[in-house]
Amino acid sequence: MKSPASFKKAAEWALPYWTRGQAGRETPHDLFRVLYYGWLVAFTFKVLGSAWDVSWHFKWLRDDLAPPHLLNSAGTALAVALTVIHGYTGYGVDKAALRLIQWGTGIFLVAVPLDLINHRVNGLDITSWSPSHIMLYVGTLFMIAGVIRGWFMGAPPGRERLVVLGAFFAFFLENMHFPEQHQEYGILSLGAWDNRATYAEQILLQFAADQMQRPIDRAMMVGFTLPVPDYLYPVYAVVAGLSVLVVARLLIGRFGAATLVAGGYVAVRTVAWPLLTYTGFPPSAVPFFLVAAGLLVDVAFLVRLPAVRALLGAAGVTAGAYGALIVQNAVMGPVYGALKGQEGLLGAPPLATSSAVWAGLGLMAAWLAAEWLVSRRKPHPHETLPTPVAAPATT
């Protein structure tokens, strides 16, 4: 625990910065780092809470003040505080980054009471795909997108810039993939039921059965654990998950970026798995296939050689279209193959293989859009935030 002298020293350092300003004002380097490392802490709390939350809901009846909700709320409180600091002082963000952060925080805060009302009206509503839950993901999406832009625009070149940018993209991937955890926990919970080793408490099963107006049987368990069509999991994982990896590779600009972002997220899920199961909570299928997908994205960028790009350009085909064609033809098969292999070896939600066509078309469109947007929006070095200046003198 920090001593009163430490708090006093921190206050003396921070108070001179608490002045009204417009977004894009000159930001001292030490303040810039404090703000964005604060965002790393906020997102870490939110990830820890959300990772525990899904497992909790497959074991216990919902509770507004459940420990996972409180842990997530701690991250939300810090995120709100940082949003207020950015908005009032204008430090650490340009106008676009600030608007994304503010809109994301606003949507999230509106979604929280709507989600509480939804649970009061509709009962259990365990599915991650409900409208109020989707609003939470959308709010977090805008929030992290604004933080990524703010860091990308203002952080000085160097290893720290790339590592922290990769960490923010890992948080972005976690938010995008989060609703898929319903199926990842659900498939193992259904398997436990089939093996007569049910994870959920009897009170939760009875509540779900009463809500479905069914006895506690396998049909009820299927509706409880896997309430969405089988094609949703692979299509969403490919289109949404790989789109994040594509943008990460484009902005980080290094081979291995997509693999490391995916690997970082999967590593967190891998560590959480034994921690949760050791304490008696249900396990989940871990999306190891995302690491293979990240590697394929990196390879797709690697093979886009200048000579090939020039040849395609002469034929009237853009580099972006070439990248999209690579994904459709070379990535879709291995990703679905990795999913199928994981389904047989380690466990994964049911895979509707025919959905590969729609996943491929969706990813091709998303890849093209990402290349187009980044080529148009990627800031020129002269558009970055002004060079950090010395800290203001204290009085």
From TrEMBL:
Keyword Transmembrane included in the entry's annotation: yes
Keyword entries, A-Z: Membrane, Transmembrane, Transmembrane helix
Transmembrane intervals: 34-58, 70-89, 96-114, 134-155, 162-178, 231-252, 259-279, 285-303, 310-331, 351-370
Record lineage: Bacteria, Bacillati, Actinomycetota, Actinomycetes, Streptosporangiales
Organism: Nonomuraea solani
Protein name as annotated: Uncharacterized protein
